[in-house]
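Chapter review: from sequence to fold.
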Amino acid sequence: MSSNLADSSQPTRPAIAWIGLGIMGSPMSENLLKAGYSVTGFTLEQDKLDRLAKAGGSAAGSIAEAVKDADVIITMVPASPQVEAIAYGSEGILENAKRGALIVDMSSITPQTSVDLAKNAKEKGIRVIDAPVSGGEAGAIEAVLSIMVGGEQADFDEALPILEALGKTIVLCGPHGSGQTVKAANQLIVAVNIQACAEAVVFLEKSGVDLQAALDVLNGGLAGSTVLTRKKDNFLNRDFKPGFRIDLHHKDMGIVTDAARNVGAALPVGAVVAQLVASLRAQGDGGLDHSALLRAVERLSGAQV
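The token string follows.
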């Protein structure tokens, strides 16, 4: 009898399917496992599936297998084409998830893709929220991501305990697509901030200043930022191991440039930084961390990198 009472006080946790176990998805799914959720995952790389299984999750052989019994389906893939590829078609999420399931799409995609997905899912009796994140690989590992959400209040409320195992700042920003719009603004601010930091680093070094001391004091004042805190060591050590790849930031700058044009917002500095990101990618640095914008400034300043 006492065990029954104990059981009734512990509501059943939703079964979670996780699609996309990359730089962000792997540590995020592991944080859900640590929080006591059951997670069945699917991704294209076998080593990532092995990692999930080793952490206590279940590896599925297909999207259909992963989602068929899931209450909540979390997706974390690179861009809109990948979201469409996993959502639609006979092997996709919408054809194989049960009615009443909730899709939490944490990918960074165009707002319109999120709006369309929510509309198409509704016809199948499936709910969707868009919930892109900011904080990079470190934020994913530490479960301190900022999560910006678009969708219905009731669906947000249902997803909130899960999202709380992944992030620290979780905000419903408006209807479907709103999370993606806020994420686009986030990526604009981050790119411009990294570019400003990169220019400052080259200026400081060419002036013969102790770079570590300079960045420490700058980060303690109005010039300080989460970007500088997170990327300071990348700049100092020229360590551009990807936490967030230039290729992905290039995609995001395309999203924000296009979305801003659609609503009539001018992004003069953002447009310049979007071109600098594109040029860095064209020079073969697309697989590096976005702090590698420093390399573009160094090239412009005469260095051979």
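Two observations follow directly from the output. The mean pLDDT is 95. The CA atoms of residues 257 and 263 lie 10 Å apart.
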